[in-house]
Write a structure and sequence with these properties.
Blueprint lengths: L1 E2 L28 E4 L5 E7 L4 H9 L1 H9 L4 E7 L6 H16 L4 H10 L3 H4 L1 H11 L4 H8 L2 H17 L4 E2 L1 E4 L2 E2 L7 H11 L2
Amino acid sequence: MRRLALVAAALATFSLAACNKAPASNAMADDMSLGNKDAKITVVEYASVGCPVCAAWQKEVYPAFKAKYIDTGKVRYVFREMLVGGGSEVTVASAGFLLARCAGQDKYFPVVDAVFASQPAVFNTPRETLLEIAKSSGLTEDQFTQCVTDEAQIKALNERVQRNARENDVSATPTFEINGRQMQPGYHSLAEIDAAIETAGK
């Protein structure tokens, strides 16, 4: 589990340089989601692509979760961006999220998956690793550089992060919210998520 870091993403130099109220799960205009929008169950994950615990969940649990719930139309899955930790974690997460948005809605989740999968190497060579992901998504190096240094988009990202933290009472990642009810922040097995989904469906 990684604690929230509400810091401005200082990415202007990144192109040069080698993570108890029941919150609402109402849809937001800038939400990124998968699955059946009319599903009775909505699972929201608040996570950072720079969070090692989130990356472990993505690798170990998400594929089975997706096959069982998203691909079958049983669940609407919403991913909400957070920035946690400090230093390289925040830099990587900020650039990763900006890149995912620049790649386009249809490529957003593949880029997010790729950034998660690139850990821990991405912390050692962030620009090179993320540039490779950008190119695999159809972006040129110039487009990538412009993307991760776009001040308007950096501001929008920070506003999303702060809104998610403030309005949904999120202070750590990963945090899962099922039909508006938050689970304890941290890594959860598929069995634990199964139980929470079953409870929400009653």
